[in-house]
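In practice, a research group might receive sequence data for several interacting partners and want a quick structural hypothesis before committing to experiments. The following worked case mirrors that situation: the sequences arrive first, and a predicted assembly follows.
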Amino acid sequence: MSTDRRALILMSPAILWLLALMVVPCVLILVLAFFQRGIYGGIEYTWTLENLALVFDPLYFKIFLKSAGIAGLSAGIACVLGYAAAYAIAAMPRRNQPLLLFFAVLPFWSNYLVRTYAWIVLLNREGLIVNLARWIGYQGELPSMLYTEQAVVIGLVYNYLPFVILSCYAPLSRLNPEITEVSRDLGASAWTTFRRVTLPMTVPGIATGFVFVFVLSIGNFVTPALLGGGQFQMIGNLVYAQFLTANDWPFGAALSMVLIAVMLGLLMAQATVAERAAGMKKDQGNG
Amino acid sequence: MAERNTFRLMLLILGVVFAFLYIPISVLVGLSFNEGGLPTAWTGFSFKWYGALLENDDILGAAANTVVVAICSTILSTFLGTFLAVGVEIRRRNGKWLETVIFAPMIIPDIVLAIALLSFFSLLGAKMGLHTIIVSHVVFNLAFVCAVVRARLKSFDWSIVEASADLGASTITTLYRVMVPVLTPAIVAGALLAFTLSVDEFIIAFFTAGAGRSSITLPMQIYAMIRFGVTPEINALASIVMTVSVICLALSQRLNKGGLSG
Amino acid sequence: MSRLSPRSSVCAIVALAAFSAPAFAEPLTVSNWDGYMAADTIDAFNTASGNQAELVLHATNEEIMGKLIAAKGVGYDVVFVSSPFAEVLNNLGLAETLDHAKIPNIANLYSEATELPHDPGNSFSLPYAWGTTGLCYRSDLVDTPTSWGDLLAPEADVAGKTTMLATDRWLLAAGQLQLGYSVNETDPDKMAEVRDLLIEAKKSLLAYDDTTFYAKLVSGEAELVHAWDGWCNYGIGENADIKYMIPEEGSDLWVDTMVILKASENKDAAYDFVNFILDADNHRWAAENILYKVPNKAAMDGVDAGLIETFPNMGMAPADMLKFEQMRDVGAAQRDYSRLVSEIKAAN
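A structural hypothesis for the assembly, expressed as tokens:
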């Protein structure tokens, strides 16, 4: 038997599993998006483009932009913080780095709901932060920090920061220290060296982190529901609502399609960034 | 001089980031031992909320369901994922579509996979319950197991396999005698990772669960507790869930140095 | 190698087997809101009837409706939903037409409760609890409210400390009532007015909250909240300064009902269950535990007088409640309602 056939037999159970329980359901969603919704929910099997058109209806498009804004802001903040942390870890003595990285990533593996809930405890008007402020002697009345857009952003940044640290650390740790030294020897300042040499070479890590946080945030429904007090809708909440409250599955499917399209677009952009950076690295290696 | 200042700045950044990462969860753990249970006042150290957990049938039931889901999906995905990894690595050329299908479960937004599976199961007319959660969890778990095992296989010396085959060993024997021992740490690491993911997974479980209490998992229970008014028990529950995940992950990392570290 | 493929087919068979419906008997599945029955009700029913009932919880009407429609009612035997949703279940043909001979305790209901507009004669639904929607507030922190306007455009010192119900119908009803419209109004222009009013109200809102508003009152996070009367009672129970009132513009009359699913495979047990609930003692026990009024005369007559003194809204007479309009199923207009609520929630 040829190696390839052996390989296929080994792979087939998993591939079949993925085909049956991922590919087929996702294709089903694509098809569902073109059916009509029944008056009380449910699906009527008549073709229509209505659902896709509805995605670009001003109302839903606005929600889309808004959630892209929140997701973008969260991803941006997470990237700044995550990059700084990764840079700092990479600047520590080599033998300490794995441990630091491990502890930076550890919270990521505790339960997502628990991590979000922790912020309810901290931020609510009678919560820990307000009580601390009172204890210090602050007299005035503080506005609620919970149920705001900021609370949603904090929650998203908090939950996804470890991943950004991880994705930024990888290229930083691989960076050849000689390159930066050469740059310094040639008279460039530390800042110029960082800006012209280190940063461009580590862009793929940042791009990966950004895309990841953005995609997970825009599709998130838990954080806006728990920290946003129901006042902020992300695409995730809208999809959730179509399936669990409005019972408009075809429209929910159409929204998911757009979500997948955005995700694929971003992943392609990220791959391009990575390829360019790889090209640049080669140039520098040769030069 | 400048170097030392830079180093101090780096330490400061690390301090701030680690404080941001650890203060919120530490507060929860601290509160779980607070006799009064409220964040407003420390009224004394107590295990009372942990005791209360043991008497809460809903939570115990949900915990049992979670263990069933996590164990079953881990076993299934460990087999499927390991076979897949070995298959992919011994195959000489893998098309782009194949890599995409294997990679997709790790990046597809949970909500999309969740509604896709919900639609799929309900159109099939399948009765939903723990079994639907299990088979759904296997989808992403097998991808993670596969990634961990593949990382290990990259540095695998294939000449051993060839040698084994040359000596007349059957494929099964080769797999069992040669590859399994070498791959065991990675397989166990992958399994632990899958177990952790499955224990914590909420969205897909929420959508693919059946009607009864019999398919409520711990994350679903926690979500309900947060939404329906919080009792201090949740701090104790959160602390336990966190500890379990952290232990599994720490073990997984130890077994799988240099592999998929996230 | 060839010896391996049978193994993988075994894997596939195991996976397929997991899908097929289990053969063993399922318990009677009852879905209700969390905390909307006495904690021991299911056990008491199981002991009394020898059935194996289990309770599952839904967070909202919409959530359980979504699951019921998706599964065509399979998997559930008795569900507790608000009356407009019971109408939907009936219109979809998912609700069992009730055989009154199997529910002798129906005689315990107030006569008003057997002629409710959504289902005169209780052909597909049985009222479980009823009441009004109004304002629940901290009388030690805010002036006594009089109008829906006190919630929608609160005084400066209350702004940021109000919550509104998140469920489509009740959220909209606050605006409909304030503007003097029917709680079933569907006219686009009038509803646009309602939407604009509610978008304006959002500026002074702490959160939309269906489930923990009374806890927010108790902790002081909120001071004036949009509430169902019975749920306000949970707050009153913890802090006697919390009070409930119906704004001068009126309220809706909400009725939460029990519906038996046509697809139920345990219909006899389901009938047993609803009859068990309507028993005077059991229904009284429910009322005393959940602090909601129940439409059961025999049960309400037995409710402890002290309880009604503590929770005055428990004493409201059925005739007074019936002055308010009941929410009805609005059919296709529900989609417009959903859209309006999306517009409100997306506004900032």
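Before designing any experiment, note the following. Chain A has a mean pLDDT of 86. The radius of gyration of chain A is 23 Å.
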